[in-house]
Each structure stands twice: as structure tokens, then as C-alpha cells.
From TrEMBL:
<feature type="transmembrane region" description="Helical">
    <location>
        <begin position="102"/>
        <end position="123"/>
    </location>
</feature>
<feature type="transmembrane region" description="Helical">
    <location>
        <begin position="63"/>
        <end position="81"/>
    </location>
</feature>
<feature type="transmembrane region" description="Helical">
    <location>
        <begin position="20"/>
        <end position="43"/>
    </location>
</feature>
<protein>
    <recommendedName>
        <fullName>Mll5186 protein</fullName>
    </recommendedName>
</protein>
<keyword id="KW-1133">Transmembrane helix</keyword>
<keyword id="KW-0175">Coiled coil</keyword>
<keyword id="KW-0472">Membrane</keyword>
<feature type="transmembrane region" description="Helical">
    <location>
        <begin position="291"/>
        <end position="313"/>
    </location>
</feature>
<keyword id="KW-0812">Transmembrane</keyword>
<feature type="coiled-coil region">
    <location>
        <begin position="236"/>
        <end position="285"/>
    </location>
</feature>
Length: 332
């Protein structure tokens, strides 16, 4: 151990705050400059957008830039603090080195606290990205589900409109018309005395009920056949055959609507499940990126602390030797 004593001006504190503040200002300024430059290059945070080579290279470059930014900042700040620190009292060289190093460590601690707000953007960027990606995925999911739902409604509405094109408007939307007409209509249709307007209303009511329920009673079939025979020149058998055709067409049209609704509902559920899975995957990816970013910053910060101590010790030696780092020397 070197026990050489050096006489210096006495002082009340081994912690030289003016020198520490000077080093901290330099460290924060350099860190801000390099962080801004890195952000312009897209190296402000780690992103995980895939497993291809470009993504891996971007990850490595971003992590390397974070380390370089913090180490360079606190190496310079520590050097300034060590070079400007006043050597107090009589102390061995080892004690002076320890005091210089501790002052550099204080620069690192103070700089970390002061720059926390500025560097918090780098820490929270991945979290914000996670929220944005998840929100975007959720919005996309909602869009897909809404589109699928619209498809359901559109398909059902389109088929229903096509199926009900022949139904009078007054008989389409009120199921009570069918019940009322069923109460008042006669059991048999007399071709000679039947009111054409009443026949048309009763027939439309029955057909509308078939479209709504898909079912038709024998009484309704009989009445429809009698109404057709009364209004046309068809025989009762021919009228019954025509009624059977119309009933079959109505039931097929209704079944098409049901099939379309079921298919669209299945597509909607599948789209919702896929969108949910995509949102969860995006959130997990961004969460992993945030964890990795925080880990790299923590590791880089520890290395920066060591660099600040080393820089301060080196600056203290230059102080004692009356030297100055070449980059800070004026050669005018």
C-alpha cells in the first residue's frame, strides 16, 4: 500500500458537491443528447416484432446503444467530478482514490435521479406500445366483430326482404293481424259471395305467418286453396297444388335466412376469438419488450455506475498530476 502523505488545504467535507453537480450536469446533458440521437435512429427502446434476422439485429443495436449512452455519459460526468474535486486534508493515495471514486458514484446516483423523468420515456415506451398495440388489436377485433355482425344482419335482412317481397306491407310487421283474421274468416270460401279485398287480406296474413314461423296448419291450407280457386279459374286440386308450392317456397326462403344467420354467427364467433387471441399475443409481446428494455437499462445503469467511479478516479489522478483529458484541452 502506498502511504505517501500529501498536504492539502483542509475542508469540512470529503464530498465535493460543486464538483458533483458539475459532473452530473455534464452526464445528464450527454445522456440526453445521445438518447435523442438514438430515438431519431429508432434505438430508443427494444421492440419484439418477430424472430427474423432484422428484428434480432435491431434488438442487439438498441441494447448496445443504451449501454454506450449511459456508460459514455457517466464516464464523462465522473471524470469532470474527479478532476474538479478539491483534495482535502492529508491522505494517502489510496484514500484519495477512494474519495474520488465515491464522488463519482454520487454523480451516478444523482444523475440517475435527475434523469429519471427524461429516461422514463424509454422505460415506459414499451409499456405504451403494449397498450397501443393491445388497444389497436382490440379495436381491430371490434371492427371484425362489428363487420361480421353487420354481415349477419345484412344477410338476414336481405334474404328476408327477398322472401317477403310478395307480402303486402300491412301484413308484414304485425303478427296480431293473422290471429285477428283467423278469428273472423269463414271456414269455406264461396266463389260467388267472397269479397276479393277480404280474400287478399286473409291470404296475405296467412302467407306472412308462414314466413314468420315456417309452419302452416291444415285449416290455413284449406282456406288458401279455396281463396285461390275463388279468385282464379283453377280447380280445387290445382289450387291446392299451387298453395303447396307457395308454402314450400316460403319455408325454403325462411330456412335460407336461418342458415345464413347461423353461418354468419359462427363466422362472428370465430373472428372474435381470433381477434382476442391476436390482442393477447400483441400485449404479451409488448410486455416482453418492456421487460427486456428495463433489464437492459438496469444492466447498462450498473455498468455506468462503475464507469462513473472509474472516470472520477481517472479525473482525480489528472488533477493531482496537473493534467487534463485531451478532449477538454484548449490548444488555441
Amino acid at each position: 500500500m502506498n502511504t505517501t502523505l500529501t498536504e492539502k488545504t483542509a475542508d469540512g467535507s470529503y464530498v465535493d458537491w460543486p464538483a458533483i453537480f458539475a459532473g452530473t450536469v455534464v452526464a445528464v446533458a450527454i445522456g440526453l443528447l445521445l438518447t435523442t440521437f438514438g430515438a431519431a435512429l429508432g434505438l430508443s427502446s427494444i421492440t419484439l416484432d418477430g424472430t427474423d434476422n432484422s428484428s434480432t439485429l435491431e434488438l442487439v443495436l438498441t441494447a448496445l446503444w443504451m449501454v454506450i449512452t449511459l456508460v459514455a455519459s457517466y464516464l464523462a460526468g465522473g471524470y469532470i467530478a474527479g478532476r474538479m474535486r478539491r483534495r482535502v486534508e492529508s491522505a494517502t493515495d489510496d484514500e484519495v482514490t477512494a474519495r474520488d471514486g465515491i464522488n463519482g458514484l454520487v454523480v451516478w446516483g444523482l444523475g440517475s435521479v435527475i434523469s429519471a423523468v427524461m429516461l422514463s420515456s424509454a422505460l415506459s415506451f414499451a409499456a405504451n406500445t403494449a397498450g397501443n398495440v393491445a388497444a389497436g388489436a382490440g379495436k381491430a377485433a371490434g371492427t371484425v366483430v362489428e363487420a361480421a355482425g353487420s354481415a349477419v344482419g345484412g344477410a338476414a335482412s336481405g334474404l328476408a326482404d327477398a322472401a317477403g317481397a310478395a307480402i303486402p306491407d300491412e301484413a308484414k310487421n304485425d303478427p296480431t293481424d293473422y290471429l285477428s283474421n283467423q278469428l273472423l274468416r269463414p271456414n269455406q270460401v264461396d266463389p260467388l259471395t267472397a269479397d276479393p279485398e277480404q280474400l287478399a287480406e286473409q291470404t296475405a296474413s296467412i302467407v306472412a305467418n308462414i314466413y314468420r314461423t315456417g309452419e302452416v296448419s291444415e285449416e290455413d291450407r284449406t282456406y288458401l286453396a279455396g281463396a285461390v280457386a275463388a279468385r282464379t279459374d283453377l280447380t280445387q286440386a290445382q289450387a291446392k297444388e299451387r298453395v303447396d308450392q307457395i308454402v314450400t317456397q316460403a319455408q325454403e326462403a325462411r330456412q335460407e335466412v336461418e342458415d345464413a344467420v347461423a353461418a354468419a354467427k359462427a363466422e362472428t364467433e370465430q373472428a372474435a376469438a381470433e381477434a382476442k387471441e391476436a390482442a393477447v399475443e400483441a400485449a404479451q409481446t409488448a410486455r416482453n419488450a418492456g421487460i427486456l428494455t428495463a433489464f437492459v437499462l438496469a444492466a447498462a445503469s450498473l455498468i455506468a455506475g462503475v464507469a462513473s467511479v472509474a472516470g472520477s478516479v481517472h479525473g482525480g489522478r489528472h488533477r493531482d498530476q496537473g493534467r487534463l483529458f485531451a478532449g477538454l484541452t484548449y490548444r488555441g
